[in-house]
# Entry
Amino acid sequence: MNVTFAQEASVVEAPDTNSITTVKDYQFVARETLPPVQGTSSYKWDEKEKIVVFPINVWAGWLPIIAANHGFAPNEESVFFKKYGFKVDLKLIDDPVAARDAYASGNSHVMWGTLDMMVLFAPELAKDSRTAMRIYQQVDWSNGGDGIVARTKIRNIGDLKGKTIVYAQNSPSQYFVNNLLINAGIGLGEVTHRYTATAFEAAAAFVADPSIDACVSWAPDIYNIPEKVAGTKILTTTAEANKLIADVWAVRADFARDKPEIVKGLVAGIFEGMDLLNDATFKGQAFQWMADGYGMK
# Structure
């Protein structure tokens, strides 16, 4: 499933109605290599309840699983319960490193991510055979949902040489911008990098700090900023690089070994969620579940 701007435009995490961007507050963080996993443990499981903890981030590509699950909370109306005998608890964890650590600690059974993130996380997680990743499904390609917003003086990617860019490190944003810079012949050291923990904070920092020349973020912020902030524009999006960022999910190796029938049910249920979205009335309900789960007002 391609995630387009039309889908993404409706998705906002706990928006501040007085702010141009999804969040108003931001904090710069120091550059660091990927922090070590904060401890590994066996996964938690109640055989009576059979609840799979499946974190997701704010992203329209998760609509099929939200549709199949009839919302975020575990319930008996979901496709997963009715057809496969287990429940799913969708947890909102936007910080990819926090999502990784929840997975490693056994507090979640699944980890959301993009394929580039999985490659980044794999070496640390593979040190413990229990937490080695098993990727079972790609849910979409980003097709306009991720992008770069810049001051209007920046005409193209080449103009970013010598400029300041802000983005969430250890995230798809970092992979996206680094890929574009390298392909434009710009060394990563030829740009000043500023970092935040999340893509939404990067957008907020760009709006608040005119010394920042560009930000890497995702919808809806990348579309709202040029509409509301003079002197800014969309420089590029994944609509132009639409086979670059692939959204996937991974299961812990120990959980996949112990519960193969549940993993199979997750894959099948998400595909069924995609089919359910062909019904316009149901799709409207699914978007409402998504809005509720993402904290839209």
Observations:
- The chain has two domains: 35-143+244-293, 146-237.
- Residues 260-276 form the longest helix (17 residues).
